[in-house]
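Bench notes, afternoon.
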Amino acid sequence: MALIVATAGGRPEAVAAAWLHDLVEDTPVTLAEIESEFGPDVGSLVEMLTDISKPEDGNRTARKAIDRAHSARATAEGQTIKLADLLDNARSIIRHDKDFAVTFLREMKLLLPLLKKGDRGVHREVSRVLDEWERSRP
């Protein structure tokens, strides 16, 4: 994913955020710690990429709607990183977990129109992967 961001012309801070984007969701690391270690620019980008919904916000559908609204407010740079994450995840999930791909790609289809500020080339590639997957389904 960081390679996708770099190839799209991402600044070093964007590439760093791409590497760090899952830390807050998947580990005890906080946004404050990321900002302290990597600076406010990287911290801000990671915040844009971090899902903000909580289990008490409802079922998966409700939580994903909250997270989509958060992603829609991200800067162009933040949205480019999010697109790179979608692209990387979609490729992996399609290859390794076809059952979950149905859910993930349905959610990705709802998110994609909200990420228009992101890099056009990465956006097109995400759209292509989604279209290809939809055409391959019975």
